[in-house]
């Protein structure tokens, strides 16, 4: 269960500020897992030099660890989070992400859900690119 008492998967996104393009993501943890823990499983957390161009950094909220490339400048930004805006856009374009009607009874079922979400992330980036 997540904090809203729903079955869910944790989805971590790193988005570009100017166009909401997704540059890195992490999927597959249970929705009840803390974001900072799920973040540690992302490629970005271990290979940030491969994911981020030189002299770039990530703005994150205070739940994430401070690193030279990962900063949390604001505790509660007024305009909300860019990642939240990206999730709203994703769920607007792909209504299936609001509530997947799939039963996860095996590892293969979990992979189907992960691939489903990955396809939506790829299509999101295509929409952002061609818009």
From TrEMBL:
Entry cofactors: a divalent metal cation
Any GO molecular function: metal ion binding
InterPro entries, sorted: HARBI1_dom
Pfam families this protein is in? Answer: DDE_Tnp_4
Q: Which UniProt keywords apply?
A: Metal-binding
Enumerate the spans annotated as DDE Tnp4 domain.
2-79
Q: What is this protein called?
A: DDE Tnp4 domain-containing protein
Species this protein is from = Pisolithus microcarpus 441
Q: What high-level taxonomic lineage is stated for the organism?
A: Eukaryota, Fungi, Dikarya, Basidiomycota, Agaricomycotina
